[in-house]
Amino acid sequence: MAVPSLKEISAQLESPNVRDRMVALASLRHVPAEDAVPLIKKVLDDESLQLRSMAIFALGVKPTPECYPILVKILESDPDYGIRADAAGALGYLGDARAFEVLSRAFYEDTDWLVRFSVAVSLGNIKDPRAHAVLIQALDSKEVILHQAAIAALGEIKDIESVDLILRFAQAEDWLVRQRLAEALGNLPTPKSVSALNYLARDSHFNVAEAARISLQRLQANGN
């Protein structure tokens, strides 16, 4: 099957049929970022939220200097919480350290849990140790899914100081929280981490126990 030209993709992005526009956007995955981004921008304000979401994701995986300010503007001003969450997630894919300030502000100011969840995940993705305070606050959220994201992110940024604060989730009702804890502790080499992992390795849920065993192996391989 012939790969469509940029001109053909551009024309298809203006089709009145949303499915045509989605196909055109998807076909940009093989196009270099500098050629793809001008075309992605054509549907950033599309009437279809699904297409807008796809376009925002595309900006995160097709980085050019233009992508960062576009995503920041969407995160800070779009009226749709799902779109703001997409922008927060895409900023994490960019891995740009400048996003720390923007993401942190969004965590404190945005009232929607989905946006805050995406922020926590992205703070882990950009691996900025300054995220400690934001992620610790996320641990006190009423949303269990935020606990999952924050624990995982604390592991990503290798935040040794957080060990005492995340160990309280070793007996969390949600097994995914316990799994994220087991995974995170593999990046946090302390005696307490090893002790907790030995406990989690006997967890009743297979995924939790397996994650704990893998983390123990990682710590042992690194001499801990």
TrEMBL record:
Q: What is this protein called?
A: HEAT repeat domain-containing protein
Out of the domains of life, which is the source? Bacteria
Q: Which GO terms describe its cellular component?
A: phycobilisome
Q: Which keywords appear in this protein's UniProt record, sorted alphabetically? A: Antenna complex, Lyase, Phycobilisome
Give the GO molecular function terms. Answer: lyase activity; oxidoreductase activity
Family from the record: Belongs to the CpcE/RpcE/PecE family.
Pfam families attached to this UniProt entry: HEAT_2
InterPro entries associated with the record:
ARM-like, ARM-type_fold, PBS_lyase_HEAT
